[in-house]
Sequence to fold (475 residues):
Amino acid sequence: MENILVVDDEKSMRDFLRIMLEKEGYDVSTAENGEEALHLIRNESFDLVLTDIKMPKSGGMDLLGAIKEFSPQTPVVLITAYGTTESAVEAMKRGAYDYITKPFNVDEIKLVIQKGLERKRLAEENIFLKGELREKYVFSNIIGRSPEMLRVFDLIRKVADARTSVLITGKSGTGKELVAKAIHYNSRRRNGPFVSISCGAMPETLLESELFGYQKGAFTGADANKAGLLEMADGGTFFLDEIGDAPLSVQVKLLRVLQEMEFKRVGGTKDIHVDVRILAATNRDLLECVKNGTFREDLYYRLNVIIINLAPLSERKEDIPHLVEHFIKKYCLSEGKEIKGISKKAMAALEGYHWPGNVRELENVIERMVVLEAGQVIIEESLPENIRDARLGSGSGQAIIEEADLRGENKIDLEKLLKSTEKNLILKAMDSAGGSIKKAGELLGLSFRSMRYKLHKHGFKKKTNPDPDELEPKG
Fold:
C-alpha cells in the first residue's frame, strides 16, 4: 500500500484529502504545517507528499527544499491558490513534481498523484535494473535489509569464488538453501550444476546410493550402473542439507570427498574423481553432536572453515515488511490476484508474532492471505487467529493501554487479552527453554508444578513417548 503525506493548515482540507485518498486505497498520514511534516518524514518513508504552499510556521516551499535534501526520490505535489501559480512554477524548478490550483477537480488530483507514484516506481525499477538495490538488498531471491542480513550478503560476496567448504547454520525455515544457491550463482561455477540432497530425508542405504551411485549387481534390484548425485554435480556445487542427520557411515565417505574429491560407487572398486564445491547446512549444534558421538569431529572441522549463520526471523523483524511485500507480489502474480498491500494493523500483527517457522511460515501465511483475501488490501481480521492473538499478547502493558479506546460503545475483552498474553509468554518461555518445563518456569518465576498446571490449562499435552520434562501443544 503506497503511503502519502498530506500537509495543509486547514483541518477540513486535510480531512477531505485523507478520506478521498484512503478510498483510492492509499495509506494516508497528515500534518498541519511543514515543521510537523518534516518530523514525520524523518521517521517514516513516504511515497508521495501533497502539500499546500502557504502555511504558518513553515510553508510548502521550505518543506520542498528539506524533502529534496532528505529524500530526493520522493515526489512532491504542491497545492496553490490562483494568485500564487508563479511560486508553484518556481517550486517545480526546484524539484517539485507538479502543482494543483485551488479550487481543484478531484479527478485531476487523483491523476496527478497516480502519475507521480508511477514516476517514482519507474525510477526505483531503473535503479534496481542497474544493480544498485540488487547488490545492497537482494541475493538470489533472499530478501532483507537488517544488519544481520547485510552481513550475510557481505559473506556471500566474499566466499562465492573460494573453493573452501561453507557451513550454513540456522533454524528451520530461515532460508539456508537460498544462501547456498546465492553462493553458487554468484561464483565462477554459476554455469555448472547446483545439486542438493537432504541427509535426513531418506534411510541410510538409500542416501548412500543416491550420493555415490552404485554398480550393477551391488544389491537386489541394481540392474544397471547408476551415477550418484556427486557425479552429476561435477563442475558445479553440491549442497548437503541437514548434514547433522547424516549417518556416521556416510560421514566417513563424505570426509574423503572433501579431502580428496574422490569416492567409490556402492559395490564399485574404481575411484571416481569429481570437481565440486561442497556446501552444507544444519539446524543442529554440530559441536554438541561431536561431543555426544553422533557427528565425526574430523568432518566437523573440514566443514567448519567458514560459517554463515542465519538469524531467526524473530531477531530481524525489520525485514518482515520487505518480505511481506515480496510474497504479496509473488503470489498475486501466480494466483492472478490484484492486492495493493497490507493495512498498518495487519502489518503490526505480523511484526508482533514470534514466527517459530521463520521465513517459511511467513511465506505460507501470505500465500494463504492472497488466496483468501476478497478485497484489495490484506486486513488484520483476515490473518490467522494465532497471529491476531499474539498481537494482543505482545508488547508492554503500557502500549496496550495507549492503544485502547474505551469511549462510547468501544470495549476490550479483558479476560481474553489476559489469557492470550499468558499463553504467548508461556509459548515463548518454552521455546527459549528448548521444551523444558522446569527451565521455562524459572524464566517466568513459576514453580515446576505451577508451570505444568498452566500448560495443561492452555491445552498442551504430553508427547507419545515423552521426556518427563517436556510437553507439546495439542493438534
